Amino acid sequence: MAAVEPQPTAVPDAYVLTPVQHGDERGTFLEWFRSEQLEAVGHPLGLAQANLSVSRPGVVRGIHYADVPPGQAKYVTCVRGAVLDVVVDLRVGSPTFGTWDGVRLDDTDRRVLYLAEGLGHGFCALEPDSTVVYLCSDVYRPGAEHGVHPLDAALAIDWPVESTVLSPKDAAAPTLAEALAAGALPDYETCLSRYAEAGPAASLQQSSTLD
């Protein structure tokens, strides 16, 4: 009953998972999160917070990211409607710095997008009352939360709507170049160290200690 294996995106340390759905006359059942699937790719997800947002068509939320450490990994799905969910590599020194990838999340295929600490995240609502829920590895820390402008021409994210609706905070976010110049972006090597600390070896050590 598990999802298929996590599929890598164009941004390293971000994966798409597609749950297997089981339907009958009663409706549908699926497992949208199983911890061992992320552990298998070296990104175990410790749950610290769960968020939900409802958006009208054209609303863009993001691009958001958190300081590393501790960072905030996210596991995102859309339980109603549809969104284009986007991950951006904001890690300074990464071979794919500035690269983005997008996946449609909706209430039909029920795909999930996982993104590791240090990566930027945003989405665009495509249908009325599009409802996104996501699990987070750390709680919201206002002083450690930042953003990059989702309409930055340098990123050239192809939002699939005629006009976008942004919050005042997102509309005032710096461009990628401005955030880079200000030293506000995560460091790639620091992020890799963070992943290694939380990886399979660390999980096994913790399990042995608890035993």
Descriptive report:
The strands form three sheets. This protein has a six-stranded antiparallel sheet with strand order 1-2-10-7-12-5, with no helix packed on it. It has one domain: Jelly Rolls, CATH 2.60.120.10. Helix content is 18%, strand content 33%. The longest helix has 11 residues. The protein starts with 6 loop residues before the first strand and ends with a helix. It is of the alpha+beta class and 211 residues long.
Main sheet makeup? 6 strands, antiparallel
Helical content band: 10-25%
How would the global form be characterised? Answer: globular
H and E string: EEEEHEEEEEEEEEHHHH
Tell me the domain tally. 1
**Total beta strand runs:** 13
What CATH first level would be assigned?
A: Mainly Beta
Task: Summarize model confidence as the mean pLDDT.
Answer: 92
Class by alpha and beta content: alpha+beta
Q: Major sheet: order of its strands?
A: 1-2-10-7-12-5
Could you say what the CATH architecture is? Sandwich
- The low-confidence runs, each spanning 5 or more residues with pLDDT under 50, are 201-211
Share of residues in strands: 25-35%
Radius of gyration: 17 Å
Number of helices: 5
User: Which fold name is given in CATH as the topology?
Assistant: Jelly Rolls
Task: Determine the N-to-C terminus distance.
Answer: 28 Å
User: So, the CATH homologous superfamily?
Assistant: Jelly Rolls
Give me the secondary-structure topology.
Blueprint: E1 7-8, E2 14-17, E3 22-24, E4 27-29, H1 35-39, E5 49-55, E6 60-66, E7 74-80, E8 82-89, E9 100-106, E10 112-115, E11 119-125, E12 130-136, E13 145-147, H2 168-171, H3 176-181, H4 188-198, H5 200-210
Antiparallel strand pairs: 1-2, 2-10, 3-4, 5-12, 6-11, 6-13, 7-10, 7-12, 8-9, 8-11
